[in-house]
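agent> Task received from the user: take the single chain below, predict its 3D structure, and emit structure tokens. No templates, no multimer pairing.
agent> Plan: (1) validate residues, (2) run structure prediction, (3) serialize to tokens, (4) report one or two observations.
agent> Step 1 OK, no nonstandard residues flagged.
tool_call: predict_structure(input=
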Amino acid sequence: MSATRGISLEGGFPSLAGATGWLNSQPLTPAGLRGKVVLVDFWTYTCINWLRTGPYVRAWSQAYRDDGLVVLGVHTPEFSFEHEIDRVRCATEEREIDYPVALDNDYAVWSAFDNHYWPALYLLDREGTIRDHHFGEGRYEQSERVIQRLLGVEREPVSVEASGVEVEADWEHLGSPETYLGSARAEHFASPDADAIDQRRAYRFHARDAHLVLSAGTREPIPFQVRLDGEAPGPSHGVDVDSDGNGLLEEGRLYQLVREHDTIRERTLEITFVEPGVEAYVFTFG
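)
tool_result: status=success, residues=286
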């Protein structure tokens, strides 16, 4: 019986030639990867959904490398500051990514795969045929079983432990959607007062975690302060804020402002920056 029986065929290995650079590897090609099972992971380092898949992808890379699995990360940036190679390199090191990463600043690899999502996983067999894909979080055990079937191995799924921003969302109590800042991408904005352009406002949310993607337009770090319902967050502070609500914007990335330690309920979030020059992009929750 074929080890891949029952796994549908989806097409050949799209080109990697449009990559603008590589980390952890010399440039790879579909022809050079023939004979390997390949997991292609589209990511961008500020994406909370990708961050929460990271522990699984790293674990699969380590667990099945000797069986013939190659994990290939494709970093396709969403925001302008994510195009900077040094920042992607730092994110790669911080997330302990030791597998090859194609830098896709021009969206060429993204387009070759006709991809539309972060994160997105594509599994290719040893002949270079796409046999499975998954967009977003979850379905980890099923994806791992496909990896095993393509490799011709069978064992217990890997054990994964996550910490910090990589911890799985509390889906049961997650009541707030991803919300982009600025009127151009305000499709999830809802308020009884409608848009409040250029006016100071607090933000109401219902989730265990609250994150904000930030970048500084200055060279110097910018202090900021977070308040929950008008008070310091105390034990509900996120990893990038202390119990008094103090944080420091140093580089463009996702900042975790809140992680509820107790009952998850609707809260009011305020963030104040001490200096000008802050660029804020999107609230995400978990």
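agent> Step 4: summary for the user.
The CA atoms of residues 50 and 119 lie 5 Å apart.
agent> Done.
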